[in-house]
Amino acid sequence: MTGSAMGMLDEWFESEELKVTLATDAVIGVNAGLATPGTAYVLFHHVMGECNGVRGVRGYMKGGMGGLSNSIASSSKSMAVDIFTSSGIAKIKVKDGRAQGVVTEAGDDYECRILTTGVDCNIIFTKLMDKNGWKSGRGFPPALLAGIFLLFWLIQERDTVFDPV
Fold this sequence. Notes:
single chain; 165 residues; alpha+beta; 2 domains; 3-stranded antiparallel β-sheet; two-stranded antiparallel ribbon; 5 strands
């Protein structure tokens, strides 16, 4: 699954017409070419996924992704969740393998029992968290750590390998 969609399609199919048809599912929604490592997973994710019990189709959020964010915010507020959007996060505070709070770019310090964020995991683990807190693996499920290290490997490969496709 960490290989390229191009390699996987070439291995399993002869028809260029079929490969081109399937290839669109390998790169839709990603900034990658068919030869980029990891696109085989994207292809399988899109082809094997399902929406409302129908395999291989996608659903689209009413109101777009902003509609999803608004829905999550509305539901969270109904459960007395505090949402802060006026300042970015400078640091996620971690203790004993758990997020304990954040320090904002404005310098505000917040404690929390549960932390959710819309920031992607690359930014969270490379810029917002102290690497000593998670690289040791203390308190993190092994499957999560494996996914994080795979993500870093793919990012490193993408940054160092020229992919003209």
